[in-house]
Design brief:
single chain; about 800 residues; alpha+beta; six-stranded antiparallel beta sheet; five-stranded mixed beta sheet; about 45% helix
Length: about 800
């Protein structure tokens, strides 16, 4: 590091780092860059704030966190050997494979310390390791916040405020010489608890019940409640200082005694190595890719079907935002999936920018204009678009159906489903799968164990192995959603996904394309009024067939059924009977069955025979008998019809309701315009205004790129030079206090700057910009004219021009500062 003396503060330790090391710190803790610190001292101060330290601790792996926790209960400062002893123990533990575990800890500890140093959580040389004060406060034990290690306070901390008489009683019961100095008494008791031989002799005299009490407290929590008249075992421990009073009803096992009982170890199970991700099956990579490709095509088809269903305007939006439970059920039924899976497809379409609110007064969901562009892409490109959106999305559909912190239900497309950790967990989960051999399906439990090691929970939930934390749930959802989306096939990562993660969308699409079946231009018509599509259909054929028939079943082949209602739907869309016959004859590989031809002709003959307009509404028909039949039908009572003329009926309901009512009675009416023309209703016309995909909610500040890091490091270095450079104050001016701006008169400022420009020397100046922000800079004046000074600014590492009236004062640099 180029230092001749050990650093005395974190700022000194950071100042001794090279630029690359500072850049690594800022990359690991990007919150330190907002805004860019003025100098190293400000950087060190910001790195020690509570919010920043908490964020840094939460990004440590389990062993690095265990190392920090051990330092929090070690003396401050602590030598490397003491830290290593807290992690490996004092050698009295004869458990299985202890030597192997200690060797693993010894090998992993330097890397963990390097991580903590790089992130400015630990500083100092190996003989004087210091955990930053805020981290020590967060990780050190207290009654309100027990230490993650389960250790209690030291003897000195636990006996603070204890009466000298009570200390004398403890010394006497423990067989220690009396002393009237409280400090000596505490030192003597601490020495007893840390002396291996004497502590063993003391515990040999303890009752068996007293040892049982210690066993319950030794691994934490170290606090226990006692009655005013404790049992003899507890009284024995309390008299000898093995339990020290915290309050009238609470006692604590002091740290030194607990460490003796733990054989010197701060953690019950140190974890220097990440747990391995184990395989449950090794599958043929080609079978994995084929399965994943089939599921990828199904994912694209499902999203397309969802948006087709909402083509004319989707469900209404709740007042609080999102889909109602009823609408989600309807969507699930339409897609023939469960409600959680329907919520996933809806959220995926929303995250991909294919679905949004229409923004109308009666707000509804509808496809966006981007959907039309997406639908024209090849299937592999459509899948890449969906997969890329899923990877980056902070929307978490797995939360749908749960409750927020206030007990309110979380709905699909609602406002409270963003979780900033989701993208990182997805990427890390897939990275673990990518590290396995192609075709290897991992055990989900080992994946979760590895993720918990890489980003453990702090506190009690970590020690308890809590599997209900959000990150673990997101990881499980990631594995399930990956299978649905075709990211994985039969549990193993597909080749096209590896390409997406490694090289980007283009290569992923290229690998997926050969595995997706080519769309067909034909169907097989059958005599039972069904049509079988033996594979995916070309887009125009699929759209026309979906208008002419209803989907009866899906799978490897899709079965469509022709009904009077489906044929009428095609006629309503502007098709004629001749168009439908020609369409079926062109696209069927089998002859058109006679029943289907009869069905089309029969529906077409009756279609439009009745005409409906606005009276409120009316019905007209050239055949009086049909109108007579309608009036005689009891089901028409709700339509409130009356005859206006032999060929016309009037109704008191709107045309749309009248149209629907007559269709339910078995007729095939057609709507007409004010001019008497038949109104053609074409599906798929409703779109939102242009909308972009929802922006993921970031987890903290974004990671800066190399350019920003380089500029930030130069600015911090230059600002540090300005803040720490040695200055020469004028003889008649008081010395500037540290961090304050120099103050000189306008005449003195001008004279000093002109002299520096002629001699080429550097100056320290105070400067206030147009926004009123004050800063201090080191400049080398080049030219002074017109009320401006042009100078090389060492702080910004560039030539700048400053108005003289904004310079608060100047001071020359000391000779040794410019050498």
């Amino acid at each position: 590091m180029g230092m001749t003396t050990p650093p005395r503060t974190l700022a000194e330790a950071l100042r001794a780092r090279d630029d690359e090391s500072l850049a690594r710190l800022l990359r690991a803790r990007p919150d330190l860059l907002t805004p860019v610190p003025n100098d190293i001292t400000q950087l060190a101060t910001r790195a020690g704030t509570r919010a920043s330290v908490v964020r840094a601790l939460e990004h440590l792996d389990r062993f690095a966190l265990q190392t920090a926790e051990a330092l929090a209960v070690a003396p401050d400062p602590a030598p490397y050997e003491t830290l290593l002893g807290l992690l490996t123990g004092d050698g009295r533990d004869d458990g299985e494979h202890r030597d192997e575990a200690d060797a693993a800890i010894g090998n992993a500890l330097p890397a963990a310390l390097t991580t903590l140093r790089e992130q400015a959580l630990v500083w100092g040389e190996d003989d004087r390791l210091r955990l930053v004060r805020t981290a020590r406060e967060l990780l050190a034990p207290s009654p309100q916040h027990p230490s993650p290690t389960g250790l209690g306070p030291t003897v000195a901390e636990a006996t603070a405020g204890m009466s000298p008489g009570r200390l004398q009683d403890i010394l006497a019961s423990a067989g220690l010489p009396a002393t009237h100095d409280p400090v000596s008494a505490v030192t003597s008791l601490s020495a007893l608890f840390t002396d291996r031989a004497r502590m063993g002799e003391l515990l040999d005299t303890a009752p068996a019940e007293a040892l049982s009490v210690l066993d319950r407290l030794v691994w934490g929590p170290p606090y226990g409640e006692v009655t005013p008249n404790p049992t003899p075992p507890v009284k024995w421990l309390r008299d000898r200082g093995l339990l020290l009073p915290v309050s009238t009803r609470t006692v604590v096992l002091p740290r030194e005694a607990a460490l003796h009982l733990r054989a010197g170890r701060a953690h019950r199970v140190p974890e220097p190595r990440p747990p391995a991700v184990e395989a449950v099956a090794d599958r043929d990579p080609q079978a994995v890719d084929s399965a994943a490709a089939g599921q990828a095509f199904l994912a694209v088809s499902t999203v397309e079907e969802l948006l087709k269903n909402w083509n004319g305007g989707g469900p209404a939006i709740l007042r609080s935002g999102g889909l109602s439970v009823r609408e989600l059920k309807k969507t699930a039924t339409a897609l023939d999936v469960s409600e959680p899976i329907a919520a996933f497809w809806v959220e995926l379409a929303y995250a991909a920018g294919l679905l949004a609110s229409d923004g109308e007064a009666d707000e509804r969901y509808a496809p966006t204009p981007s959907y039309d562009d997406w639908a024209e892409l090849p299937a592999q490109d459509r899948w890449v678009h969906l997969a890329t959106a899923w990877l980056a999305a902070t929307r978490t559909p797995g939360l749908v159906g749960g409750q927020d912190a206030k007990g309110r239900a979380l709905s699909a497309l609602g406002p409270d489903l963003d979780r900033s950790a989701a993208p990182e967990v997805r990427h890390r989960t897939l990275a673990l799968l990518a590290a396995l051999e192609p075709g290897t399906a991992p055990d989900p439990e080992t994946v979760l164990a590895r993720l918990r090691w890489e980003r453990p929970l702090r506190g009690a939930s970590a020690s308890a192995g809590d599997t209900t934390d959000l990150r673990s749930r997101i990881a499980l959802w990631t594995l399930n959603e990956s299978e649905l989306l075709g990211i994985t096939g039969r549990g193993a990562l597909a080749a096209h996904t590896r390409a997406l993660l490694r090289s980007g969308p283009a290569e992923a699409a290229a690998l997926l394309a050969p595995l997706i079946p080519e769309p067909l231009d034909h169907v097989l018509l059958q005599a039972d009024l069904t049509a079988v599509a033996p594979g995916p259909l070309e887009r125009p054929l699929a759209e026309m067939l979906s208008a002419l028939a209803d989907i009866e079943s899906k799978g490897g082949a899709t079965v469509y059924r022709f009904t009077p209602g489906s044929v009428r739907r095609a006629l309503d869309a502007g098709q004629s009977a001749a168009d439908l016959h020609a369409f079926l004859a062109t696209h069927s590989r089998t002859p058109v069955p006679q029943p289907l031809s009869y069905l089309i002709d029969d529906v077409a003959r009756r279609h439009g025979h009745l005409r409906i307009g606005a009276a409120s509404s009316y019905v007209r028909c050239d055949d009086e008998a049909v109108l007579n039949e309608i009036l005689a039908d009891k089901r028409s009572a709700t339509l409130r019809l009356r005859r206006l003329a032999p060929t016309a009926l009037a109704a008191q309901i709107d045309p749309a309701s009248l149209l629907e009512g007559l269709r339910e009675m078995g007729y095939a009416p057609a709507a007409e315009s004010a001019e008497g023309d038949v109104l053609i209703t074409r599906a798929g016309a409703r779109r939102t205004s242009p909308r972009t995909a929802p922006v993921p909610v970031p987890e903290g500040p974004p990671v800066p790129d190399a350019t920003l890091l380089g500029a930030a490091v130069r600015a911090i270095r230059a600002g540090d030079t300005a803040a720490t450079v040695i200055r020469k104050d004028p003889a008649d001016a008081p010395a500037a206090s540290s961090g304050s701006l120099p103050r000189t008169t306008s005449a003195e400022t001008l004279a000093t700057v002109q002299a520096a420009a002629m001699t080429g020397s550097a100056l320290w100046i105070g400067y206030v910009n147009a926004d009123g922000a004050a800063s201090q800079r080191v400049i080398a004046p080049v030219r002074v004219e017109g009320g401006f000074v042009t100078a090389y600014d060492h702080t910004a590492d560039e030539v700048r021009t400053y108005p003289l009236h904004r310079i608060t004062g100047v001071a020359e640099l000391a000779d040794d500062a410019t050498s």
